Amino acid sequence: MKILKQKWVTLPILWVVILAIWQFAAIIYGPEVIAGPIDTMKGAAELLEDGSLLTYIGISFYRVFVGWVLGSLIAIPIGLVVGKVKVIRVFVEPVLNFVRFIPPIAFITLFLVWFGIGEQSKIALITYATLFIVIINTLTGVLAVEEDKIRAAKSMGASEWQILVHVIIPASMPYIFTGVRLAMGTSFMAIVGAEMIAANEGIGYLIWNSRLFFRTDWIFVGLISLGLMGFITDRVVEWFGRKVLYRYGVIGSKAN
Amino acid sequence: MSQAPQFDTNTIKIEQLYKSYDTPKKGEVHYIIKDVNLTIRGGEFFVLLGPSGCGKSTLLNMIAGFVSKTSGRLKVGSSEVDKPGQDRAVVFQQADSSLFSWLNVRQNVEFGLKMKKVPKAEREKVSDRYISMVGLSGHENKYPRELSGGMKQRVQLARVLANDAAILLMDEPFGALDAMTRKTMQKELSNIWRETNKTVIFVTHDIHEALLLGQRIGVMSKGPSSQITDIYDVPLSYPRDFTSVEFNDVYKKIQSHFDE
């Protein structure tokens, strides 16, 4: 059965099996509990037609993207400083390890009070969700820079600043990149929670709101959209790492 | 014209040098190296020979300015060593941990010049010269991960030569290479040293290597409290023939030192 080892054969078979199980489960439990693939597709068509699905995807994605970029831009310099300066690290590390165990979603009520019910509170939440992962990864990267590299640079006359820019940052690039990539995942988790609690738009809002109308198919559409959004963004980020940051030793983790 | 001064800028003078670390037990001091006295002339090829763990790398790191001394005097030229300096370049044992993996061969070699803001055209002239000296012409655009172990050590060598330090500190640089490559590298290092007139301090635990390269060989005793117990002059001319009777006479003499 050599033909079963071919990807173009196995992949469609796998999909057909998954869809069949899904449809089968939908028939057994009824469309109110499990919306089958056909119902879900119909629901998706509905949501696409009135434009709400693309709007919601766009809004959720916008929140994640802005918060994630902002969080990374704040976190990387902090991670570098905390990793480089021991006095600061001794003081900051316990704080980091305390705060990072508070899940972002636990902050949503507080952020609503601080930043209002508009976009700011959601973006602040994503920024928070990104912050600690990227700080800790950057910090770990800085600490993992081989002493020999720093010594070599020193004996070639590099100043502290030059060592930071030309040795420490490039050497910790794989760690920083991993942190940024992981943060994308937590950002998606955080945004859905936030949109369920306090939003009038977005995929999280769609999933939460659909329960009012008993539209299980819309919930499925929301879930699948989230999966696709995450999958595609991760691929883009991974591709960027592989192509642009290759020389820093960033390697992709694509399965094929 | 007057005679060159006895202690020119690349002379190393070490007097009663100690390096210790505190033990958990209070009041008990552990010496890594103890009472080291040594003078290395400018332009000399000096080998530090000793068993592993004897503190020869520590001594080298102290000369480099990476490790501070506990007491004693350690002078390069007329100034006391207290930090790394461009007069002392280091070739590390592990090329992978010391080369900049995100820079290609040329960029690695030009690193020091770039830090000094030497213009690009000038940098290229210098890097071309030393890349060709270590036999890496044609590999300028390769990254360290694309090079063999021997080639990586050549990059390290070119990198320190391009930075034009008077003193080269080499910490078992050929230790991780296969026997064939090591032989070639030893021969080439010897040639480069004679061509460039650098002062070289070369750390090794290999008597054969020490004899192929060094004008003088300082033998260090087993640690802790390591000392330079003997200094051997090697009166053989370069390039050295390790099959000669004279080579083997000195070899035996040094070997017997370790047999005791």
SSE arrangement:
The complex is a heterodimer of chains A (256) and B (260).
Chain A: H1 7-29, H2 37-49, H3 52-84, H4 86-99, H5 108-115, H6 119-143, H7 147-155, H8 160-197, H9 203-210, H10 216-244
Helix pairs in contact in A: 2-10, 3-4, 3-6, 3-8, 3-9, 5-6, 6-8, 7-8, 8-9, 8-10, 9-10
Chain B: E1 12-22, E2 29-40, E3 45-49, H1 56-64, E4 71-76, E5 79-80, E6 88-91, H2 95-98, H3 105-109, H4 111-115, H5 120-133, H6 149-162, E7 167-171, H7 179-196, E8 199-204, H8 207-213, E9 216-220, E10 228-233, H9 245-259
Parallel strand pairs in B: 3-8, 3-9, 6-7, 7-8
Antiparallel strand pairs in B: 1-2, 1-4, 4-5, 9-10
Helix pairs in contact in B: 5-6
Pfam family, one (chain B): ABC_tran
GO molecular function (chain B): ATP binding; ATP hydrolysis activity
Protein name (chain B): NitT/TauT family transport system ATP-binding protein
Which CATH architecture of chain A would you pick? Orthogonal Bundle
Count, helices of chain A: 10
Q: What portion of the residues of chain A fall into strands of 2 or more residues? A: under 5%
Count of strand segments of chain A? 0
Q: Write the CATH fold name of the domain at 1-85 and 214-260 in chain B.
A: Rossmann fold
- Helix/strand-derived class of chain B? alpha/beta
What is the succession of H and E elements of chain B? EEEHEEEHHHHHEHEHEEH
Classify the helix fraction of chain A into a percent range.
Answer: over 70%
The best one-word shape of chain A is globular
CATH secondary-structure class of the domain at 1-85 and 214-260 in chain B:
Alpha Beta
* Rg of Cα set of chain A: 23 Å
Extended strand count of chain B = 10
Question: What is the N-to-C order of secondary-structure elements of chain A (H for helix, E for strand)?
Answer: HHHHHHHHHH
CA-based shape of chain B: globular
List the strand order in the largest sheet of chain B: 6-7-8-3-9-10
Strand content of chain B: 15-25%
Organism (chain B): Neobacillus niacini
Pfam families (chain B): ABC_tran (PF00005)
GO molecular function (chain B): ATP binding; ATP hydrolysis activity
Keywords (chain B): ATP-binding, Nucleotide-binding, Translocase, Transport
